[in-house]
Amino acid sequence: MNTRSQREIERNIAIHDRLARRYDALHGEIFNDVEQARLRVALARAASFVESGTSTLTALDMGCGSGNLSRHLLELGGQVLAADVSQGFLDLVEHRFSGRPINTVKLNGHDLSNISSNSRDIVAAYSVLHHIPDYIAAIKEMARVCTVGGVIYLDHELTDEYWAGDPVYDQFKAEALRFDWRKYLVWSNYVDRVHRIFDPRYTNEGDIHVWPDDHIEWSKIDKLLSDAGFDCVHAEDYLLSRKLYRPSIYSHYVGRCTDMRNRVYRRRGAAPPAAPRSDIVAGVG
What we know:
Layout: H1 3-19, H2 23-26, H3 33-48, E1 58-62, H4 68-75, E2 79-84, H5 87-96, E3 102-106, E4 120-126, H6 135-145, E5 146-158, H7 160-164, H8 167-176, H9 187-198, E6 210-211, E7 214-215, H10 218-227, E8 230-238, H11 247-253, E9 260-267, H12 278-281
Parallel strand pairs: 1-2, 1-4, 2-3, 4-5
Antiparallel strand pairs: 5-9, 6-7, 8-9
Helix pairs in contact: 6-10, 8-11
């Protein structure tokens, strides 16, 4: 791990420790009814692909944040391991889900060395990869801890097509976005603008791979996981719902353009006959 990558990890930890308890309120693009409903169905679908033979779903929420995926995985009857580099997030998750079948583990930002190989039916990451300096290495680690017949769930990362440009999507943004006057009342926005004078790639929450020449490359992920013994069993691109979008315009463009990607990959290999998972399969809408 080079010095720059270590600095990026440390900055991500500091930022999210500070924002942990305000995170949900700051991210209307995640914590809204449309996106949460989509996510609920997507995770239930992913769980239905598990063929590990276990009767109780074991899940790793990698980069758990405030518990967005953990909540849905618990609702599916899973035993969840919530993992993050931010102790602030882990403390929040422990408080929110006290008494539920969930444990937390602090990540080092480099690997998943404190998580056993072949130990999880679902290894899931939502809006995480673009925060990791070496996201390819992270995918390799996710593959290592996923059991035979288990699945890797990747969600909420921009598509290759988004970076290539789409005039329909550009038109959608022009029509859908409402003016947000409240941003002019937030002092940190002015501070961030000053930071970007000296560092054009400065981001207020430590995003790394969010630029035209440095973004998540799905073709690399597909090849890596295929070579590691995984098949893509579900592929979906979708248009993210944001609180600042006009609902009628958003609904009009759903199906006409997309900006986010969800992929589910299942690990090949012989596994015991799967126990009934009716509680999980029934959640698929």
